[in-house]
Amino acid sequence: MSNRDRSKTEQLEFESKLKSLGDTIRNLANARQGESLALLSLLRMLEGLHQEIRDSLFQDSLPDNRQALYSLLKDIETSGGWPYIHRMKLRALLSNFQDLSDEDMGAMFTTLSPVAPVDETID
């Protein structure tokens, strides 16, 4: 088997495993439909994996010559852009509570224990 054939076979195997992983995650999420804490946990794990892969393996694999950089940028442009995990804004989350009065909303938040500050501008 030539190097080119081996590389193509490895790429197809990688894509198959990636699709299977995506299906598994989708099935896991669907099984927890309506369970906001479980789904939030899943989103946090995915975000953590994204950051871990980006900051280590991906950074280390970046091209070190012009041709490879061009190839990477061309792929990014033609295959859907840069991967990004979009965070929901706090206002969008709170829009589910439009029918609550300001008093009810304040009472709900005073019963919560303190958490890390929320950055509403992440987007």
Describe the global form: elongated
Radius of gyration: 21 Å
Largest sheet: none
Q: Can you count the helices?
A: 5
What ranges have pLDDT less than 50 throughout 5 or more consecutive residues? none
Strand content: under 5%
| Class based on secondary structure composition and strand pairing | mainly alpha
What is the H/E string?
A: HHHHH
End-to-end Cα distance, whole Å, is 47 Å
Write the layout of secondary structure elements.
Elements: H1 3-31, H2 36-61, H3 66-78, H4 90-94, H5 102-110
Explain what this protein looks like in three dimensions:
Helices cover 67% and strands 0% of the residues. It is mainly alpha-helical and 123 residues long. The protein has a domain at 3-82. The chain is elongated and about 70 Å long.
Task: Kindly summarize this structure in a few lines.
The protein has helices spanning 3-31, 36-61, 66-78, 90-94, 102-110. It is mostly helical and 123 residues long.
What keywords describe this structure?
123 residues, 5 helices, 67% helix
